[in-house]
Amino acid sequence: MIDRLQVFENRYEELSEKLCDPSVTSSAELYTEVMKEYKAVEPIALKYREYKNSVKELSEARELFEENKNDSEMCDMISEEISGLEERIPLLEGELRILLLPKDPNDDKNVIVEIRGGAGGEESALFAAVLYRMYSMYAVKKGYKLEILNANETELGGYKEISFMLTGEGAYSRLKYESGVHRVQRVPETEAQGRIHTSTATVAVLPEADDVDISIDPADLKIDTFRSSGAGGQHINKTESAIRITHIPTGVVVECQDERSQYKNKDKAMKVLRSRLLEAERERRNNEVAEERHQQVGTGDRSERIRTYNYPQGRVTDHRIGLTLYKIDDILNGNIDEIIDALITADRAAKLEENSNM
Length: 358
Description:
The protein is α+β, with helices and mostly antiparallel strands. Helix content is about 50%, strand content about 20%. Strand 2 (about 145-155) and strand 3 form a beta hairpin. The longest helix has about 40 residues, at about 30-65. It is globular, with a radius of gyration of 26 Å.
């Protein structure tokens, strides 16, 4: 591990010098490229320096202790310092192991989130709207830009489906754990007997695909136009601006009708199509290493029931890690960092265990 860390520190020093080089600073493209790598390497290099300094201080403190064996007061002071360093160094080692874990190449990308009402009819569509509100409020708190790509609204204000893009640093790294089936237990407004109903909504989280990530042959696309549909009123478009794109080889169908411009709807639909095809390819590769995928927390099967929102008890339970929080209102108002942080911690722990067994 030390050899790998030294490589990172050496690279960090090289990149620091490059950022001061006029040949780099004069080129916006080159500067951005170097800065991106610098930001990736910096946390590891600085943590390694902190670790090296602590190891050095511990060695010096032990030598000083030996030199002052006859001075009890001095030895007490040095012993306290030694104890602190002996506790600190293993913690730093643990942090370094986490920093050295392979990084998901999609973590820095923008994210496309698709929410669909599942079992439960209109109630599931209303729950899909609740989840959309939760993620939109979370986006505001994190400073992400939200752009609706497609929405199929119901008469009561729910969503049969809604897809949107979140643009911002680390958006995919935070939201990727939300893929799966979300279950709600509550008394619907339309329920006269006051009985608790169980409904579900499915959330799919896709990293935005760049043109270089996946190539699409225009000949493989069937593009249809149609009039926007929805709950009625001002949302109905009188022109055929809505777009439906079918990727013939895979059968993937994407619709976009949120914009009044056919061109804008086509552009958004292509973004979603690229991301879905990239995700399908990622899942295919993951299936080839099924055991590794099984050990990853929350980045896989969308048919998996990942979380339950129980209104009567005021609780939210994430079934993947057994986490239950009795703060449903707070969570549905977009405060989901506590859940996401716990999922990230569990994911890292699983990967560390996997690496130690290799």
